[in-house]
Amino acid sequence: MGITTIQSEQLFEKAQTLMPGGVNSPVRAFKAVGRNPIFIDHAMGSKIVDVDGNEYIDYVCSWGPGILGHAHPIVIDAVTKACAKGLTFGAPTRRESELAELIMAAVPAIEMVRLVSSGTEAVMSAVRAARGYTGRDLILKFTGCYHGHSDGLLVKSGSGLITNAVPDSAGVPKAYTDCTLVAEYNNEESVRELFGRYGESIAALVVEPVAANMGVVPPEEGFLQFLRDITTKYGTVLIFDEVITGFRLSIGGAAQYYGVKPDLITMGKIIGGGMPLAAYGGRKDIMEVISPLGSVYQAGTLSGNPIATAAGLATLKLLMDDQDIYKRIDDKAAQLEKAYISAGYKTVNRVGSLMSVFFTDRQVSNYNDAATSDTKAYAEYFGHMLDNGINIAPSQFEAMFISDAHTEDDIRKTIDTIRS
Ligand SMILES: *Cc1c(COP(=O)(O)O)cnc(C)c1O
Question: How many other CB atoms sit within 10 Å of the CB of residue 61?
Answer without folding.
Answer: 28
